[in-house]
Design goal:
By secondary structure, this protein is an alpha+beta fold. The protein is about 50% helix and about 10% strand. β1 and β2 form a beta hairpin. The chain is globular.
């Protein structure tokens, strides 16, 4: 989510264009990126090729995959084909046995991500003061979401498998930004792909793509549950991710001075509005958003207009 310290530079050489990754060792160790890259490549996933490296200095020389990601080239006409190719890579990722040393998307991590919503969006961004009732409501909803995530079959999870992190390639797409991979819920990456942070699709197409992923996962002998359960799993982990990203975008604005991401926050409330009414166990969260968060958003917008 643009929160790291790595930078990329295109250079020209006698052998053509190359990309230099600069990952300052005191801020972002390049070793986790290399370890996950090697793990994915060994599993047949298309990842950027490393041509040279100076790990101690934090420099990598990579192949140049071009300037366009899926986010630049995808449209209503080519989305079916591009997403099908992306799912091919995703199935390879999920077939890789997560190493024992890989972090786990456990209760602590899930809860910490959810708290970004009430701390950074509700608190820092909207200036809301949450009372005991509000916190009880959120705690109850978070408990439902965490339990649902932990109950899913667990596989290798990219954690940001979305169009901005996929690049068109003849044998791809090539997968980027994988250094935060964990062992976690099987529905997470598929949901992230189709309910993107920066691009929205009609609900009917999203549902069809999720069903198509599910069918292909079964064919690949991956541990997906039956379809009805999978749809619920995708909805639940989607709510967790949407709340997290709303919080991250607020944090990027207030802590890191990157306000542009706030423009995409409404997209996630549209996602939430479509899912929350389906689940009575999330009625408290729906009411909190409808009766407290949305009025606070409207008040902030009125202040900004003035």
């Amino acid at each position: 989510m643009d929160a790291g310290f790595r930078s990329y530079w295109r250079v020209q050489s006698a052998n053509g264009s190359r990309i230099v990754m600069d990952s300052p060792p005191d801020k972002e160790d390049v070793r986790p990126w290399l370890q996950v890259r090697d793990l994915l490549e060994a599993g047949g996933v298309r990842v950027p090729r490393v041509l040279a490296q100076d790990v101690d200095a934090g420099f990598l020389l990579l192949e140049d995959l071009g300037a366009d990601t899926y986010l630049h080239v995808i449209n209503g006409d080519n989305a079916d084909a591009l997403f099908d190719d992306a799912v091919t890579q995703l199935l390879k990722i999920q077939a890789i046995a997560p190493p024992a040393e890989l972090p786990v998307f456990d209760e602590e991590l899930l809860a910490r991500e959810l708290r970004l919503f009430d701390e950074w969006f509700c608190g820092h961004h909207l200036g809301m003061t949450l009372d005991c009732g509000d916190m009880d409501t959120l705690d109850g909803a978070y408990r439902v979401l965490i339990d649902a995530a932990l109950a899913q079959p667990q596989v290798l999870v990219h954690r940001d498998f979305m169009p901005r992190n996929l690049m068109p390639a003849a044998d791809g797409p090539a997968v980027l930004d994988f250094q935060d991979a964990v062992r976690g819920p099987i529905a997470y990456d598929a949901l992230s792909l189709f309910k993107d942070a920066f691009l929205s699709w009609p609900q009917e197409r999203v549902a069809a793509w999720l069903d198509r992923y599910h069918a292909r996962a079964i064919e690949a002998s991956l541990p997906v549950p039956e379809l009805t359960r999978f749809r619920r799993d995708a909805d639940m982990i989607g709510v967790q991710r949407h709340l997290k990203i709303i919080g991250i975008f607020a944090r990027l604005n207030h802590r890191d001075g990157k306000p542009k991401y706030l423009a995409d926050v409404p997209r996630f409330f549209v996602y939430l509005d479509a899912v929350l009414p389906k689940y009575p166990e999330l009625a408290g969260l729906q009411g909190f958003i409808e009766h407290k968060v949305k009025p606070a958003i409207a008040r902030l917008a009125a202040i900004v207009r003035e």
